[in-house]
Amino acid sequence: MTRSQVATGETTEGGIEPVLSVRSLRKAYNVGRPNEKLAIADVSFDVAKGEFVCVVGPSGAGKTTMLRCLSGLLSPTTGEVRFEGKKLQAVPDRLSVVFQDYSRSLFPWLTVNRNVAVPLKVAGVPKKEREARIQEVLHAVGLGDVGKSYPWQLSGGMQQRVAIARALAHQPDMLLMDEPFASVDAQTRFDLEDLILRVRRELDITVVLVTHDIDEAVYLADRVVVLSGAPSTVAEIVDIPLGRPRNQLSTRSSQTFGQLRSHLMRLVTSH
Ligand SMILES: Nc1ncnc2c1ncn2[C@@H]1O[C@H](COP(=O)(O)OP(=O)(O)OP(=O)(O)O)[C@@H](O)[C@H]1O
């Protein structure tokens, strides 16, 4: 399947399914009540296996609402989301979500090892395998030696690494991330962006990441889905033809990066 086919949602004649398919997604809150609010009017796009797709849009465009619909945490009002060919009814096993607020997503009374173990215990992974996987994912996010610490003993960036490790522990095919680096300082943010690019490459996972930061979207993505203001539609799906691996200094200072950034900036501010 070519990139443009994925962007428009076509499948090839051979019928290769995208890993995630969003069709005519519409989401209203408080339907039938005086405070009914249409957050998403009509959004369609597909994500191919192994792709990194970022979603940007003006504040209040419905980015978080959309991500919740993509994860199965919220049901669309109309339209559908398919993950690995199946219509989403609940959060599927092969999908993990990382939210912005690590301080609320980690359990402060559990050590790092035990925080990462939670989804594995829920999934019934045997103790020995659980311990091996915890070591593996903590090592992958550069936290091999803090397993016995508590989250509150770690910096914000380290806590978000724990949240990422926990999301990776049950070996998802797809990672959904909602502003995952918004609560950390600029240098830590760059480190975490590079971390997620490396982990995604090493573990061969598909990523959809919502961000309000256009530079971050261009730096990370293969394609960027730009939402219009609420109630949102897709303003444009922009290909990011920057090579990989990317580098915080050289990629961000390239001419192509600057052109893509300006184009996206115009799209987001004009909607
Ligand atoms: N639980 C809810 N009940 C009612 N309205 C909601 C609810 N959650 C979100 N909304 C409304 O839906 C619209 C989209 O909100 P959402 O948080 O998805 O946007 P966003 O693009 O993520 O915003 P931001 O960039 O500011 O984080 C907003 O007008 C918001 O007030």
Descriptive overview:
With 271 residues, the chain is of the alpha/beta class. The protein folds into 2 domains: 20-94 and 173-270, 3-Layer(aba) Sandwich (Rossmann fold); 102-171, no CATH class. Helix content is 36%, strand content 23%. It has 9 helices and 10 strands. A 10-stranded mixed β-sheet has the order 5-4-1-2-10-9-3-8-7-6, with helices on both faces. Helix 7 (186-203) links the parallel strand 7 and strand 8 (206-210). Helix 5 (127-140) crosses helix 6 (156-169) and helix 8 crosses helix 9 (255-269). The longest helix has 18 residues, at 186-203. The protein is globular, with a radius of gyration of 19 Å. It starts with a helix and ends with a helix. Bound molecules: adenosine-5'-triphosphate. Adenosine-5'-triphosphate binds at residues 29-30, 37, 39, 57, 59-65, 212, 230.
Overview features:
single chain, 271 residues, alpha/beta, 2 domains, 10-stranded mixed β-sheet, disordered N terminus
Question: What is the structure about, briefly put?
Answer:
The protein has 271 residues and is an alpha/beta fold. The protein has helices spanning 3-8, 63-71, 102-105, 112-122, 127-140, 156-169, 186-203, 214-220, 255-269, and strands at 20-29, 37-47, 52-56, 78-83, 86-87, 95-98, 174-178, 206-210, 223-227, 232-239. A 10-stranded mixed sheet has the order 5-4-1-2-10-9-3-8-7-6, sandwiched between helices.
